[in-house]
Amino acid sequence: MHDITIKINGTEHKATVESRLLLVHLIREQLAMTGTHIGCDTTSCGACTVLIDGKSAKSCTILAVQADGKEITTVEGIATAEGLHPIQEGFKENHALQCGFCTPGMMLRAIELLEKNNNPSEDEIRWGISGNLCRCTGYNNIVKAIQYAGAKLRGEETPSTEPEFV
Amino acid sequence: MIPESFGYSAPSSLIDAYALLEQHGDDAKILAGGHSLIPMMKLRFASPTHLIDINKIPNLSYIKEEDGYLKIGAMTREVDLEESEVIRHKYPIFTDASKLIADPQVRNFGTIGGNIAHGDAANDHPAVMLALGAEVVISSAAGDRTVGIDDFFFGFYTTAVQHGEILTEIRIPSLGPRTGSAYHKLERKVGDYATAGVAVVIGLNEDGSCSKVGIGLTNVNPTPIRAARSEQILLGTTMSESDVAQAAQYAAEDCSPSDDLRGSVEFKKDMIRVITKRMINKAIQRTKL
Ligand SMILES: Cc1cc2nc3c(=O)[nH]c(=O)nc-3n(C[C@H](O)[C@H](O)[C@H](O)COP(=O)(O)OP(=O)(O)OC[C@H]3O[C@@H](n4cnc5c(N)ncnc54)[C@H](O)[C@@H]3O)c2cc1C
Ligand code: FES
Ligand code: FES
Question: Relative to the alpha carbon of A97, which ligand is closest?
Fold first, then answer.
């Protein structure tokens, strides 16, 4: 067993974990934050994506002990007292979710993408979310949501929202 | 899915890591990016008794040009290769490959050392290394040794890295002027392993004839394979259309893919032929950049 300390969404958590405990299970089961989802459990779907020291990571493929001393951001931590994070607003305004299962992972991945380049082309966005699967939306409105968040982060007027209903 | 129980240590120096390898014996494994090993442990295809996490050891992640080599630290992440200026300008073969390896989250963690040390012919870096004529630095308590890439891959999941050793650096002989490199793989969807992949490095003499050639193939053989006959037939020639076609034909003939969900033997061989031709031409084109 290992004693670890992890900062999640700004709050320090101490836990005693087995080596084989996966980070996603620590977050969901021991710390009871269920916004991070488990879809495939085989590193394919991206539903379990969190940020570890700012880098998007599939938490079903990281051991909890590996995260010792790191800062983690989950979907529960992206809104602030001022309101929704621009990416959340983008998803809301653009109807970028249906069942919502992929959404937390999709948004955390988009946050790192926009952190590196806040004005990505459509191709760069699609490429950037290629590790996140969505079974519902057909992706078009997700792309728009990320473009919306990009504009907001650049301090520009956000594109008028005309979500596609397909 | 949960792996079988195992012990875990995260040493902060190579010396400590060697001692831990010694102490835990044959069933201990190095944990680098973890993106091949942890999935295998979850599926219980691998059940090491102890993991030695080398992520806390400093100075194993770098990309630098030194002493006539491009030196890449074993713990350099795929994303670092993707974003490196030196790589983008002088070694575009890595940029081609990195983009096709898994997806952004996996590339944030997967390391170049792990990609090679895993010894899986489905991985993309082995073919790239064969084409580039890389050398691999393997370190242990006894010191460093350097192994040429042609002597590195032994068999399915086995490489020249012996128990007690750690792969620490990859050395690529610097590509001189008038060299070009390219990689492409056919994949069924983003994040899939190659149906067939081809890495090519071409160097030209001043008169435009071929001074240097390396061709490596991905996932069409039990071990990563060099297309040796294809290289021989190009060397010294002007690489006319028929030379290139013959080289591509040899590559197809000399690989041994297996029949699986990604395609039949015949299909894969033909894809090797097609991609080899395209990558040779792309590498030639890039000699002029
Ligand atoms: C969904 C998914 C898709 C993928 N698609 C591709 C793909 O298309 N192409 C591709 O090439 N790869 C692909 N990969 C594999 C990925 O690139 C891995 O990250 C890589 O193969 C291994 O690197 P790692 O650092 O994660 O190694 P680890 O998983 O940590 O280690 C792999 C093996 O190498 C050993 N090892 C690691 N580092 C060292 C070292 N320095 N010295 C000695 N031994 C060492 C370990 O003990 C282990 O046996 C994919 C992975 C996933 C999860
Ligand atoms: S649950 Fe982790 S990638 Fe699907
Ligand atoms: S909204 Fe249902 S999976 Fe994406």
Answer: 3
pLDDT beneath 70, residues of chain B: none
ipTM over 0.90: yes
Domains in chain A: ranges and CATH: 2-77 (3.10.20.30), 86-154 (1.10.150.120)
| Contacting A residues, span 11-30, partner chain B, CB-CB under 8 Å | 18-20, 22, 25
Instruction: Give chain B's domains with CATH numbers.
Output: 7-53 (3.30.43.10), 63-173 (3.30.465.10), 179-286 (3.30.390.50)
Residue B239 in tokens: 């690489």
Q: Per residue in A112-158, pLDDT tens?
A: 999 999 999 999 999 999 999 999 999 999 999 999 999 999 999 88
Q: Is the dihedral of CA B134, B287, B228, B193 positive or negative?
A: positive
A82 exposure class (CB count in 10 Å sphere: 0-12, 13-18, 19+): exposed
CB-CB neighbours of A117 under 10 Å: 12
Whole-structure pTM value: 0.96
8 A C-beta contact, residue B161 and residue B117: yes
d(CA A86, CA A88): 5
* Residues β-bridged to residue B180: B202
Whether chain A has a CB inside 8 Å of the CB on B288: the answer is no
Is the CB of B53 less than 8 angstroms away from the CB of A42? no
